[in-house]
């Protein structure tokens, strides 16, 4: 194997370093995800770490490598989420002062979580790049050790311990699917997995809005940026140490779009009964995007993090119900006569549809002066049931029109 920033020996030493300090997470069979994808799927539940992500492995490996003098002075990191919490959590546990520089737009809950672990939190700049520049300036001024989230051999080696555990638990894996942000996770896993099982395939996954490695390796110039559910892998600049590992040893990189990431988050919640943030679910999204690549294979998915906001998770799950036509909204416009709403409600009840929301309108200009519009949102058993409901309403002369997420549909259904 060519010379890279780390070797299998580095990963094995990292495994000894983190033993007893970082949870050895389970590799769990996922029969319902297997049914969904056509592969035999096992999930590595890194969302079970105390701070909710794999980042603790690299953080502990780096912190334990410090000299006594470096530990006394302290460390500094830049991050908007999981890396910040991992460094802060274990620095406090090891008695090392920690400073975290976060962009000013970092969600309040993430900044407060980081503070709760005892770190000094500095909000600076609009982007992670600006936060990183500030962090390095503070590190130089105060003599702090900079803990990079991915471009550091100790961090890479720590993340690679995931592969050691996965192949110890399931040595017959054909593929490991790994989310890619800056590349620390996939490079560590790849070095370890390829050393133990040279023919295993490592498949990387990037959000389509952030194809940084895809561009760097393929020589493309796809645009990078935008709002993504997978903010944990929304990285514009690839790690220079991980890059040659990914370029030489990773079989391919799959780009996944936002609707698939949402579907994967929902599938983890409803089929695997576990929480996955957008980045953590991206591996499953890749399997859903290209099922033929994985069909019939034994696949290990790295669920790298579960720190998703409850409100976002709820929104994702409701949106998936809408995509599956298990939640549908429609509008009825009719003469305003007594009993109309009751008639509609009784019909829906007899059909087994659950009414979630009703809006009665008489003042819209597209409604006759003696008319009324009723907007109703219902829950059904699926597309066929929803179609049955609409046909029944139409047969009653109510002429329902579908309201989708964008506007009132021009068609009945």
C-alpha Rg (nearest Å)? 25 Å
Query: Per the principal axes of the C-alpha atoms, what is the gross shape?
Result: elongated
What summary fits the major beta sheet? 6 strands, mixed
The CATH class name of the largest domain reads: Alpha Beta
Strand content: 15-25%
Describe the protein:
This protein is of the alpha/beta class. The protein folds into three domains: 8-55 and 156-319, Rossmann fold (3-Layer(aba) Sandwich); 75-143, Rossmann fold, CATH 3.40.50.1100; 324-403, Alpha-Beta Plaits (2-Layer Sandwich). The protein is built from 17 helices and 14 strands. It has helices at 8-18, 31-37, 55-63, 68-73, 82-94, 108-116, 128-142, 153-169, 184-196, 212-218, 242-249, 258-270, 278-289, 291-294, 310-323, 340-350, 383-395; strands at 27-29, 40-45, 75-78, 98-102, 120-123, 145-146, 175-179, 201-207, 252-256, 298-303, 327-335, 354-361, 371-379, 401-403. The strands form three sheets. It has a six-stranded mixed β-sheet with strand order 1-2-10-7-8-9, with helices on both faces. A four-stranded parallel β-sheet has the order 5-4-3-6, with helices on both faces. A four-stranded antiparallel β-sheet has the order 12-13-11-14. The N and C termini lie far apart (58 Å).
């Amino acid at each position: 194997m060519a010379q890279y920033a780390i070797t299998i020996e580095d990963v094995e030493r990292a495994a000894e370093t983190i033993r007893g300090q970082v949870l050895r997470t389970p590799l769990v069979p996922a029969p319902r995800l297997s049914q969904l994808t056509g592969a035999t799927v096992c999930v590595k539940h890194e969302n079970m770490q105390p701070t909710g992500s794999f980042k603790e492995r690299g953080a502990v490996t780096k912190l334990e490598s410090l000299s006594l003098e470096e530990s006394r002075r302290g460390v500094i990191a830049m991050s908007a989420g999981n890396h910040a919490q991992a460094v802060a959590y274990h620095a406090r546990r090891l008695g090392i002062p920690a400073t975290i520089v976060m962009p000013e737009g970092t969600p309040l809950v993430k900044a407060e979580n980081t503070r709760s672990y005892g770190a000094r939190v500095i909000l600076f700049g609009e982007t992670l790049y600006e936060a990183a520049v500030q962090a390095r300036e503070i590190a130089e001024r105060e003599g702090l050790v900079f803990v990079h989230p991915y471009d550091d051999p100790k961090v890479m080696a720590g993340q690679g311990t995931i592969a050691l555990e996965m192949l110890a638990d399931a040595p017959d894996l054909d593929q490991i699917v790994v989310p890619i942000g800056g590349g620390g996770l996939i490079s560590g896993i790849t070095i370890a997995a390829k050393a133990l099982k040279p023919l295993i395939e490592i498949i990387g996954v990037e959000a389509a809005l952030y194809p940084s490695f895809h561009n760097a390796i393929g020589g493309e110039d796809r645009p990078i940026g935008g709002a993504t559910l997978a903010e944990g892998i929304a990285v514009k600049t690839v790690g220079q140490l991980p890059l040659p590992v990914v370029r030489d040893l990773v079989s391919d990189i799959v780009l996944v779009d936002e609707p698939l990431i949402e579907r994967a988050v929902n599938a983890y919640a409803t089929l695997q009964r576990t929480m996955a943030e957008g980045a953590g679910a991206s591996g499953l999204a890749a399997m859903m995007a290209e099922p033929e690549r994985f069909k019939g294979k034994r696949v290990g998915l790295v669920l790298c993090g579960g720190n998703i906001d409850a409100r976002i998770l709820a929104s994702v799950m409701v949106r998936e119900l809408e995509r599956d036509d298990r939640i549908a909204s429609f509008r009825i416009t009719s003469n305003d006569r007594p009993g109309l709403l009751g008639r509609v409600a009784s019909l829906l009840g007899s059909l087994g549809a659950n009414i979630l929301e009703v809006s009665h309108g008489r003042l819209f200009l597209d409604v006759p002066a003696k008319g009324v519009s009723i907007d109703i949102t219902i829950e059904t058993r699926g597309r066929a049931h929803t179609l049955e409901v609409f046909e029944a309403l139409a047969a009653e002369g109510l002429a329902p029109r579908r309201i989708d997420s964008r506007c009132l549909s021009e068609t009945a259904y």
